[in-house]
Design brief:
heterodimer; A: alpha/beta; Rossmann fold; six-stranded mixed beta sheet; B: ABC transporter involved in vitamin B12 uptake, BtuC; two-stranded antiparallel ribbon; 2 strands; 68% helix
Chain lengths: 502, 368
């Protein structure tokens, strides 16, 4: 074990049924170091954290901690805490209706009695030493989210922690609050605490971290000093695309010209999901896409267009007419369809049959008092089962018993059945096999040729390049660029995602 | 049960399996079990006699008739409860109390200020309509709490469960009106002269038909199931989950109103603290016995209605064997335990494994 390390994780592997979440992952943390753990969603960051904190048990590998000669076994969060590993999660896990001091000492007092005065004095002392602007007797809910976050950290630090894990602590903080948090992190660093920092925000990584470990698809990509890894390279490591991968794989469909009418146009649209206002348009027969890292706000943008989140600002024009979209039904009636990102949560109605899932959207548009006859519904279902080659025992099979790819096809059928002018596909190819992916891409281009407009979102840049003639690039919940024509290549996309020439 | 087919499996077992996996199997099996029990222990349970009542008309009497009579009230409630369960994934426990409110409102309209009037102060149909509207308003109150304030249905309806009977009493200024002077009011809860079958059964049949028409000619079934299974997905398909939940509570309110009418008509008077006591538990039990998931989602209306009659069958059987009204809930609890245990996923998996194992062996023997 390295002399300065407080933590070394070697060859960690972890499988879940059907998924290898971690494969031979390495991670090491030195004293007084802020170490970023980077990777897209599903790369294995949280699994690694959960192995370290004892939430999951590892299948293979060893964990070493400073001061202990042998590999340690961490079987529960309690074990982790006893070894000096503390975690502060994205959501505050304290009790808002207790006081600050109570929150800091909850579950840590010995015996049944509590010495309130001593506890409050102790809490004030810690808060002061960490420069946290809160009082021991204050109720926690009266503090801002950032302060609450800091109190959670103070609690962790006071438990003699050597290793502090911060899992997306900044996602609900504004810039000033983030600054305060960073100051606290730097103070702790000086005191020799090793900090693991998990975040989606690239700017923050470069501001505060010393080292970066990148994971991708459950595998260890590498450990880098921050100065040796420029942003563009970080992004390419996370996405797993080499920068010199220049292959142009766009389809033969060139998209509409500049003079084709805009079928949908939004100006400074903003929803309550935390995205910055953005402008957007799509022409008839165009395929465009939102790109950016997961969590950059691309799904939130299309949700705002469809009225799935509450729109708080902006104007929308459909076919040149100003309209208001307050609810999904309104968007649907205007000829917009939306295939959501999370198939399980937002897409399928699990217990209902394939047939009911296919006709649902069209039925809702048709109205409450005009249900489709069973025969008509079967006709629709059978038509699309055949057209999209959905593999199902029958139209009556519950959709939840289908495979992921076939479920996705059913949802796609649902929206195609409504015959939308403008179709939004958010990650239509996630978690489905390669063959189906290509079928869906072909279908998208086919629809565009028929004059439909499509917004296509995918985590795989290849797919976007293959289908889209224009890309809107997002970073940190903001639209930061638009790429078309010659700019549509991996290099430009990645450098735009990474931002600037840093 | 999985749809895996083994070549060795005979078609009889397949038919049996598909029957067992059908939802309506549960209430039918329970019904058969009860029927068989009564047949063996005392066949006289099934005797039906034609008796002449005081006013010279003949009516049918017997255990089966009383099941048909009181089961109908329950079946009407089960309709509404099934919708509520499907859409909101919870149950309304204020049904009994709201029946008291509806009944009290009906009597108030009929009697006016004087609890012992000499003639009706309003036509019966007006009173019934008012009673139904009042019940629907209280249903809407529950619905708003559940859908717009996101309160758990059981907790939200606890309010009316607690306060309902006081409200009912308050409607008539705490007095106990009596309309027994007007025989035509009593027809609805007992017998129409010349018709030997109790009237509540006919009211229930009308409700079944209307429900059937609603399910056929509107999309309520699809919508409430969608909302109950996956609210967020339903929303993205253009549905308004809040509205749909509210509508189901209003429908239950209507069912409660009708049931309240039958209840006050039976006696032509009201006892605020006793009327329809604990009936919500029977209604919920009917939904559960119909094999519907109490967590919401898919439902089978026929099974619920059948479930209601099965519950009444059980109640009547228990009365027949001298179980006192106080002890009744304990026996029903046994049924609930059995239902819950057998519908638990772990037990079901265990049973289906057991089933497969045994039939697997048998099949091999047959081949050998």
């Amino acid at each position: 074990m390295n002399k300065n390390s407080v933590l070394e994780m070697r060859n960690i592997s972890k499988s879940f049924p059907g998924v290898r979440a971690l494969q031979n992952v390495q991670f090491s943390l030195c004293e007084g170091e802020i170490h970023a753990l980077m990777g897209e969603n599903g790369a294995g960051k949280s699994t690694l954290i959960k192995v370290l904190t004892g939430v999951y048990s590892k299948d293979e590998g060893d964990i070493f901690i400073k001061g202990i000669d042998n590999a340690v076994s961490i079987r529960s969060p309690q074990d982790a805490q006893n070894l000096g590993i503390s975690t502060v999660y994205q959501e505050i896990t304290l009790c808002p209706n207790l006081t600050v001091a109570e929150n800091m000492f909850i579950g840590r007092t010995k015996g049944a009695g509590v010495n309130w005065k001593k506890m409050n004095d102790e809490a004030d002392r810690i808060l002061e030493s960490l420069d946290i602007p809160a009082k021991a007797k204050q109720q926690l809910s009266s503090c801002s989210i950032a302060i609450q976050q800091m109190i959670a950290i103070a609690r962790a630090v006071d438990m003699q922690c050597k290793i502090l894990i911060l899992d997306e602590p900044t996602s609900s903080l504004d810039e000033q609050e983030v600054e305060k948090l960073f100051k606290l992190m730097r103070d702790l660093k000086k005191k020799g605490v090793g900090i693991i920092f998990v975040t989606h925000f690239l700017d923050q990584v470069y501001e505060v971290c010393d080292k970066i470990t990148v994971l991708r698809d459950g595998q260890f990509v590498g450990e880098y000093e921050i100065k040796d890894l420029p942003r563009v390279q970080l992004v390419s490591k996370m996405l797993g695309k080499e920068l010199d991968d220049m292959s142009d794989i766009r389809g033969d469909y060139e998209g509409p010209g500049e003079n084709v009418e805009k079928i949908f146009e939004a100006t400074s649209l903003q929803s309550n999901a935390g995205i910055k206002p953005f402008d957007f348009y799509i022409r008839k027969g165009e395929v465009n896409g939102f790109t950016g890292l997961l969590g950059s706000g691309r799904s939130e943008c299309v949700r705002a267009i469809f009225g799935a989140d509450r729109v708080i600002k902006g104007t929308i024009k459909k076919n040149g007419q100003t309209v208001k979209i307050g609810k999904p039904i309104r968007a649907m009636k205007l000829g917009i369809g939306y295939l959501p990102e999370d198939r399980k949560v937002d897409g399928i109605i699990g217990d209902l049959s394939v047939r009911e899932n296919i006709v649902l959207a069209l039925q809702v548009m048709k109205g409450f008092f005009r249900p489709f006859s069973k025969a008509q519904a079967y006709k629709f279902a059978d038509e699309y089962i055949k057209k999209l080659e959905i593999k199902t025992a029958s139209a009556d099979t519950p959709i939840k018993s289908l495979s992921g790819g076939n479920q996705q096809k059913v949802i796609l059928a649902r929206w195609l059945l409504t015959n939308p002018e403008y179709l939004i596909l958010d990650e239509p190819t996630r978690g489905i096999d390669v063959g189906t992916k290509i079928e869906i891409q072909k279908l998208v281009l086919e629809l565009a040729k028929q004059g439909k407009s499509i917004t296509f979102i995918s985590s795989e840049t290849d797919e976007m390049l293959r289908t889209c003639s224009r890309l809107i690039v997002m970073r940190d919940r903001k639209v930061v660029g638009e790429l078309k024509g010659d700019q549509l290549n991996q290099n430009t996309i990645m450098s735009t995602i990474a931002g600037g020439d840093k | 049960m999985s749809g895996s087919t083994t070549k060795n499996k005979s078609s009889f077992i397949q038919i049996l399996q598909s029957m067992v996996s059908n939802q309506i199997f549960i209430p039918i099996a329970a019904l058969l079990l009860l029927a068989l029990f009564n047949l063996i222990v005392d066949p006289s349970f099934y005797s039906i006699t034609l008796k002449e009542s005081n006013d010279g008309f003949s009516t049918l009497q017997g255990n089966l008739i009383s099941i048909l009579d009181f089961g109908s009230e329950l079946a009407i409630l089960a309709i509404g409860m099934t919708f509520v369960t499907s859409a909101s994934g919870g149950q309304d426990i204020s049904v009994g109390a709201t029946i008291a409110i509806a009944g009290s409102a009906i009597l108030r309209i009929l009697c006016g200020d004087n609890p012992r009037p000499s003639e009706l102060q309003a036509p019966i149909f007006v009173a019934v309509i008012v009673g139904c509207i009042v019940a629907m308003l209280f249903g809407a109150f529950n619905g708003v709490l559940v859908s717009f304030f996101n309160i758990q249905p059981m907790v939200a309806t606890l309010i009316l469960f607690t306060a309902g009977r006081s409200i009912a009493s308050w409607i008539n200024n705490g007095q106990l009106p009596d309309v027994s002077f007007e025989p035509s009011f009593g027809y609805w809860g007992t017998y129409i002269p010349g018709v030997p079958i109790p009237t509540p059964f006919f009211i229930a049949v009308v409700c079944f038909i209307v429900t059937g028409l609603i399910l056929k000619f509107t999309t309520l079934g699809l919508y409430s199931q969608s909302v109950g299974i996956n609210e967020s997905s339903a929303k993205l398909n253009g549905l308004n989950p809040k509205m749909i939940k509210l509508v189901t509570f209003v429908i239950l309110g209507l069912c409660v109103g009708i049931c309240g009418f039958i209840k006050v008509s039976r006696l032509s008077q009201i006892n605020y603290s006793v009327i329809a006591k604990d009936i919500e538990m029977d209604a919920i039990l009917a939904v559960a016995l119909g094999g519907n998931a109490l967590g919401g989602g898919k439902f089978n209306m026929t099974a619920s209605i059948l479930g209601a009659y099965v519950i009444q069958f059980l109640t009547t059987t228990l009365y027949k064997y001298g179980v006192s009204a106080d002890a009744l809930p304990a026996y029903k609890a046994v049924v609930v335990i059995l239902l819950v245990v057998f519908s638990a996923p772990t037990v079901r998996d265990g049973l289906s494994n057991f089933w497969k194992k045994n039939f697997g062996k048998k099949a091999v023997k047959e081949v050998g």
